[in-house]
Amino acid sequence: MAAYANAKLFYISVVFWLILGVECYSGLSNHVLTIMTGGSVTIPCHYDEKNPPQKKYWFSEIDTSKIYTDTIEENLSVIDHPDQSLFTVTMRNLQNNQNGPYYCVVETEGQPTVTYELHLKVRSAPDVSVVSSSVSGHEGGNVSVQCFYSSGYQNELKQWCRYKDQSCYTVGRTDTSQNSSVQISDDGRNSFTVLMTGLRLSDSGWFFCSAGEAMNPVYLTVIEAEQVTVHLTVTEAEPGSVTTDTSTEKELRFSLSQN
Ligand SMILES: *[C@@H]1O[C@H](CO)[C@@H](O)[C@H](O)[C@H]1NC(C)=O
Ligand SMILES: *[C@@H]1O[C@H](CO)[C@@H](O)[C@H](O)[C@H]1NC(C)=O
Ligand SMILES: *[C@@H]1O[C@H](CO)[C@@H](O)[C@H](O)[C@H]1NC(C)=O
Q1: Contact 194, 220 (CB under 8 A)
Q2: Cβ atoms within 10 A of the Cβ of 92, count?
Q3: pLDDT tens digits, one per residue of 239-256
Q4: d(CA 250, ligand 2 centre) in Å
Q5: Which protein residues touch ligand 2 with a CB less than 6 Å away?
Q6: Does residue 210 share a domain with residue 118?
């Protein structure tokens, strides 16, 4: 039975590579994402900002379907975000029969390239999980993310990585390539906590927590400090008014940049 399943999987893989004539991206890595039965997940698929592809799709090896941007269905959405040079794939109501490999694929001049490969496992308990897949912090402030892992992962390498360039921060490592603005502490039992301090606007984007091959994505939004100041000042000056005074905004931006 297992041999048959393996042979079948191999056959499907070969057909897939033949049909697409796929070229692999250098940043391709093998990630395992475990999601609870009935759960949802959003996965980012980055593409080259200087040379945006003509076609972008999510490929399932389970039913060999290609879901192009922009598709919105009850249980699956594939949405392009050209401003961020990525498309996101949201899978909802996940069921056990959806286990298997999935790919982010981009096509330029008819040439498909797999930019990301993911192995999805729908289980009663996830291997790596986060309380919320979306966190936010203010420019200059801090944000912390707690990443939970199951007992089998206690001795695996724990990391916090940025999708875009696949740069990672590792628990217990102090190599010089790491920014001191990210600190990771592992309780050694079932979670590790990532603290990002002195947030910059450029820190906004997709990250993932990982333990060994198991991972889970998190979206970080860094809110501009200027916007907060402007909002508070306008509210103070004109209580009850909803309109934005653009001259006040300009003056504030000016005074902020002077500091
Ligand atoms: C979405 O998933 C649920 C749960 O598996 C299923 O009952 C429903 O039919 C799905 N919807 C579509 C449009 O496939
Ligand atoms: C951010 O974290 C640093 C380091 O732990 C701490 O010194 C600082 O007070 C924190 N800032 C805020 C706004 O919480
Ligand atoms: C590390 O910090 C420097 C500036 O302090 C910044 O330019 C760089 O993008 C940071 N690297 C990462 C991976 O965040």
Answers
A1: no
A2: 14
A3: 444 444 444 443 334 333
A4: 30
A5: 141-142, 197
A6: no
